[in-house]
């Protein structure tokens, strides 16, 4: 048989499938109305398991897996359509709408901002790019930044969330789970690491190098060129530069920013020592309440799925069904549960998109735990 004839047959079958799919969705709308009248949830897990088992048996061994994928998608689309028909009241949907109405049209120029580290830290560099004239307070640990905002000591906090080379800053993700703060903006800052030492020190003199764990990871190839040199992890790249400047030793160096060389009176022994030239760190700006400024098109959420096969797939299928773009997916283990995870999502969608509200409404009702982290714009520093 010719290919054209086979394709003609497929087109005819697709037309029948499409009509039947639309008919099924209309019936699902009636099911949604019945559930609304009888105060029933959209998701009926027992019914779905029974249907999928019947489909697998009817499809036969050759097609059962394909049929299960198809009908899992159909069921996900059906639930999405039922949610849309019912338009359930969403706590976070209302939060987004209220934030859009209450937030100023311009991002603030002046603010009290909390950062981890000391003067010269990359967080401070990000803060001065986000705010025109920030009043910055420094804290030795990320926990202090969160506490400063929650107490009202600072209005905003600037924190690293991920690096293009070394990956996510896991401690910040964990703190976002534990605290009720909201992302109001994010920024990508190009990271340029340099080897800094006291004036007069030569590379051959160095016996110990200080830096932050991620800066060390990002400069691994450069560090392998040293023999018998101790590499010591410290809280921050700027802290490393300050330690070298204040040390009585002349055989120590720091991997830090060029601005720290000027700030602490150090010499640059080697510049751009990071493994990759396109080395960026994403910083998030967090606040006590959600603020959504014009241009916000990125939403961050965290959720816990039911501990069963296909749970994450169901979440992804909802995002796909609404035509939204998934920018990031990160998993973090739940300490109190064995082999269970909190999932972090970044989703691309305008703050004004009804599809965003629809998605959040569905995920909020279908997840074991759900947390909205903010809708914001990302800028490049």
Structural summary, described in words:
By secondary structure, the protein is of the alpha/beta class. The chain contains 13 helices and 15 strands. Helices cover 43% and strands 26% of the residues. The strands form two sheets. Strands 1, 2, 3, 4, 5, 11, 12, 13, 14 and 15 form a ten-stranded mixed β-sheet that branches. α2 packs antiparallel against α3, α3 packs across α12 and α4 runs antiparallel to α13. The radius of gyration is 26 Å and the shape is elongated. The termini are far apart.
Q: What sequence of helices (H) and strands (E) makes up the elements?
A: HHHHEHEHEEHEEEHHEHEHEEEHEEHE
The helix content, as a percent range, equals: 40-55%
First-residue to last-residue Cα separation: 60 Å
Low-confidence stretches: none
Describe the largest sheet: 10 strands, mixed
Tell me the fraction of residues in β-strands, as a range.
25-35%
Topology, element by element:
Layout (H helix, E strand, L loop, with lengths): L2 H35 L7 H15 L4 H23 L4 H12 L7 E7 L5 H9 L2 E7 L2 H10 L4 E8 L3 E2 L1 H9 L3 E9 L3 E4 L10 E4 L1 H6 L1 H4 L6 E4 L3 H10 L5 E5 L1 H7 L2 E4 L9 E8 L10 E7 L6 H11 L3 E9 L7 E8 L5 H13 L2 E12 L1
Give the key terms.
381 residues; alpha/beta; ten-stranded mixed sheet; five-stranded mixed sheet; 26% strand; elongated
Summarize the structure.
This protein is an alpha/beta fold.
């Amino acid at each position: 048989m010719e290919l054209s004839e086979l394709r003609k047959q497929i087109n005819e079958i697709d037309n029948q499938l499409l009509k039947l799919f639309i008919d099924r969705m209309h019936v699902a709308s009636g099911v949604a109305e019945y559930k609304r009248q009888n105060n029933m949830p959209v998701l009926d897990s027992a019914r779905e398991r029974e249907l999928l088992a019947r489909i697998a048996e009817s499809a036969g061994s050759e097609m059962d897996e394909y049929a299960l994928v198809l009908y899992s998608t159909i069921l996900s689309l059906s639930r999405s359509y039922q949610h849309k028909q019912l338009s359930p009241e969403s706590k976070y949907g209302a939060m987004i709408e209220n934030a859009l109405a209450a937030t100023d049209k311009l991002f603030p120029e002046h603010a009290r901002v909390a950062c981890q580290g000391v003067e010269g830290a990359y967080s401070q560099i990000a803060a001065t790019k986000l705010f025109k004239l920030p009043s910055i307070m420094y804290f030795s640990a990320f926990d202090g930044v969160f506490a400063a905002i929650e107490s009202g000591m600072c209005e905003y906090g600037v924190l690293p969330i991920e690096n293009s080379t070394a990956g996510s800053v896991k401690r910040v993700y964990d703190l976002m789970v534990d605290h009720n703060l909201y992302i109001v903006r994010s920024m990508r800052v190009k990271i340029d690491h340099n080897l800094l030492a006291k004036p007069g020190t030569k590379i051959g003199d160095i016996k110990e190098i200080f830096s932050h764990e991620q800066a060390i990871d990002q400069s691994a190839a450069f560090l392998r060129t040293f023999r018998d040199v101790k590499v010591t992890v410290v809280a921050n790249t700027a802290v490393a530069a300050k330690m070298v400047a204040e040390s009585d030793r002349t055989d120590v160096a720091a991997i830090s920013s060029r601005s720290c060389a000027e700030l602490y009176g150090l010499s640059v022994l080697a510049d751009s020592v990071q493994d990759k030239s396109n080395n960026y760190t994403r910083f998030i700006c967090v606040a006590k309440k959600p603020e959504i400024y014009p241009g916000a098109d990125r939403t961050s959420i965290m959720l816990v799925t039911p501990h069963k096969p296909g749970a994450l797939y169901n979440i992804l299928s909802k995002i796909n069904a609404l035509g939204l773009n998934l920018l990031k997916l990160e998993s973090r283990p739940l300490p109190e549960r064995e082999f269970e995870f909190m999932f972090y999502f970044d989703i691309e969608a305008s703050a004004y998109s009804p599809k965003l509200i629809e998605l959040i409404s569905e995920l909020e009702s279908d997840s074991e735990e759900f947390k909205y982290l903010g809708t914001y714009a990302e800028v490049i520093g």
